Every structure is written in structure tokens, then in C-alpha cells.
Amino acid sequence: MKVYQRLEDFTALSNAIVTTGTFDGVHVGHKKIISRLQSLAHTSNGETVILTFHPHPRLVLFPDDNDLRLLSTQEEKIELLKNLGIQHLVIIPFDKAFSRISSLDFVRSILVKQIGAKKLVIGHDHHFGRNREGSFEHLKEFGPLYGFDVEEIPVQDVDHVAVSSSKIRQALVEGNIKVANEYLGYQYGLNGIVVRGNQRGRSIDFPTANIRVSEPRKLFPAIGVYAVKVKVNARTYNGMMNIGHRPTIGGGDITLEVNLFDFDADIYDAPIHIRFIERIRDEHKFEHLEALKAQLALDKNKVLQILRQHD
Q1: Within 13 Å and on the Cβ side, how many CA atoms surround 57?
Q2: Among 74, 171, 185, 288, which residue's Cβ finds the most Cβ atoms within 10 Å?
Q3: What whole-number distance in Å separates Cα of residue 196 and Cα of residue 284?
Q4: What are 237-274's pLDDT values in tens digits?
């Protein structure tokens, strides 16, 4: 997959099969659109192109909105799309000036002239251009004028629920990892760096790797304890993760800590990737460290059972 960080870096194709959107999370609904994109490219000998935006448009249009959390960082989104076999990914820097481009100019100047779109595939209720004025109906009008066909893909249903990035975010906020993973089509993950903590876990025989995530808008699942898969130093381990304030040892800001099973190595400053399998309980405040230690032993047994079933 070729990645272009600016429109100017892309040379128009003779037969571009195009879709456009934010693609946060690259969930099963997005994959339905991408699958159709690839099918059309195959039958028409075209090349697949995705236009997406960075930063997320809502962060530019509503800078005071601190509620938006992202399912995927830009790096994660690139990797997810690469794994799906897309040929060209164009990342448009989204700013106030770009947000003022009319729907007609977006179609005429970008989709047709800059990209070379011959077929356009969009999701249900897709809008584009200044004030989201453009719609599927507009695209059907523009198509014959500028030489492209357009196709709208209906929403992807999972258990009769229309999948969207918003519904996945809500499931994660509620700690409903199974639903989030089902809607995503893969296990939700976090990428970070292992940093030094207070090493309290070692004193109760449950040492943890403390994780720092560089993307401030990345969505963390609900506070609690999770069964996870952990990749570090090119190997994958079973583990259990706590997201929370550590109330038993004094509380504070939210921390991300993971206990890796059957592991004993120095991994400070190493990149680490967490995949969430299931949430097993809320975070609790225990009367003393021995009570916490006893609970962690029970948690580990439960996590091992869950991960065995998962494997």
C-alpha cells in the first residue's frame, strides 16, 4: 500500500476506484465498503484508493469538544488498511480552510481531477463538503457530469444492530469488550511504551508493566481488570491488565498496568501492544495489600480460563 500524506503527492490514476471517510477503527462496516471497492477494482481493472483525513474533522470543527476519543491512531489506521490490501491511501491534512471547500469543488477538483475517480463507493448517509452539504443524491447528479459512477453501501448489521464507530466507542466506555470486538472484527488494542512505575506489584508477586500511550485522544476501555494478549519484543504473552486509579495504594490518575504471565525480563522503553479479550471485573479498593494479592490470584485463574477458551 502506498501512503500519501498530502494530496499534492498523488498523481491522478486512469481508473481510480475510490471511497472516502474518517475510517476510525476500520470496523466491519468499513470493511463492507472496502470489500465492494476491491470487487469493483478487480472487475474493472482499476486501482483502489481511500481518502481519509488527519486530524479527525471533529477535532478541527469543534476544538472545544473534549469528549471525542479515537478507536485508532493514525499509525494504527494505516496498518489496518494496509492489512486489508488497499493500494493507495491518501491522508488529507484537515484544517479550517479544507473544511470550507464546497461539495462541488471537492468532487470536481479532488475526486475527479486530483484522484482520477471513475467509480465512487460511499457508506450509508455519507456527507461531505462545507457544512456536510454533499450527499449521495448530489453525487448521483455530479457523476454523469464528471464521468464517474457512484454506489452507496448499506450499513453493516451485527445481530440486527447497525455498526458505527460511535456504537463501538460506547461499548468500550461501558467495558463491553465482546461487543466492541464483534463490531470491529478484531480485538481492540492499545499501542504504547513501557515506562517505570512504583513497582508495588513486585511486592505482592504480581509485577506489572506500566504503559504510556502517546496519542492523547486514544480511547481507553472502562476502568477495570481485563484478560489480554500482549505483544512485546516480537513475542505474544497472556496477561491481565488493570485500567484505573489503584485505590488500594493511594489512588491518583488513571494508569495502564499489565501483568504478563510466565515472563521475567526488563522491557523498560520497549514498544508494547495490548489486545483486549474480555473484561472480568470492576476495580475495587481492598483493605490491605494481602487482600489485593488474594484477589489477583483469583483474577489470574479466571483470565487463564478465558484465554484458554479464546485460543
Answers
A1: 18
A2: 171
A3: 23
A4: 999 999 998 777 766 788 999 999 999 888 999 999 99
What is the rounded CA–CA span in Å between residue 49 and residue 86? 7
Provide, for the chain, the percentages of residues in helix, strand and coil under a 3-state DSSP scheme, each rounded to the nearest 5.
Answer: 35, 30, 35
Query: Which secondary-structure segment (H or E) carries 91?
Result: strand 88-93
CA 119 vs CA 20, 125, 242, 255, 267: distances in Å: 12, 18, 46, 46, 48
Instruction: Return the SS3 of 194.
Output: strand
Sign (positive or negative) of CA dihedral 187, 193, 196, 197: negative
- Using CA atoms, how far apart are residues 79 and 231, in angstroms rounded to an integer? 16
Residue type at 185 in one-letter notation: G
**53 strand-pairing partners:** 92
Is residue 250 within 8 A of residue 177, CB to CB? The reply is no
User: What's the gap between Cα 300 and its chain centre?
Assistant: 27
pLDDT single digits (tens) 185-232: 999 999 999 998 766 656 567 889 999 998 999 999 999 999 999 999
Quick one: which of 64, 61, 68 has its CA closest to 100?
61
Give the number of other CB atoms < 10 A from CB of residue 295: 15
pLDDT of residue 157: 73
Do you know the residue count of the chain? 311
The answer to whether 28 touches 42, Cβ cutoff 8 Å, is: no
CA distance 248 to 253: 13
pTM over cut 0.85: yes
Residue of 101, 112, 90 lying closest to 21 (CA atoms): 90
Residue 94's nearest CA partner among 56, 143, 146 is: 56
